[in-house]
Amino acid sequence: MGLGGISITQLLIILGIVILVFGTKKLKNIGSDLGGALKGFKSAIKEDEETTQNEQPKIEEENDTFDVKAEKVDESVEEKQA
Predict the structure, then answer these.
(1) Contact 19, 28 (CB under 8 A)
(2) What pLDDT is attached to residue 27?
(3) DSSP reduced 3-state for 82
(4) Which residues are CB-neighbours of 19 under 8 A, at least 6 positions away?
(5) Alpha helices, DSSP H only, in 1-82?
């Protein structure tokens, strides 16, 4: 038994038919194009992760300043109520 119930001989027959239909040059081009696309996808994911990690401290800093401003507003409201 091979992959998913397909024997090795059936896989070889399918491979032979694919080579006859597309040719070796076309299969090589398809493989290199697919490899290039995967490489670009991986680099884009890595770039996005780096950008997300770099923006994380900025968001935390903004939240700290927001908390301080909120405290000042609360103090002025309490003074007006008194």
Answers:
(1) no
(2) 87
(3) coil
(4) 27
(5) 8-22, 24-81
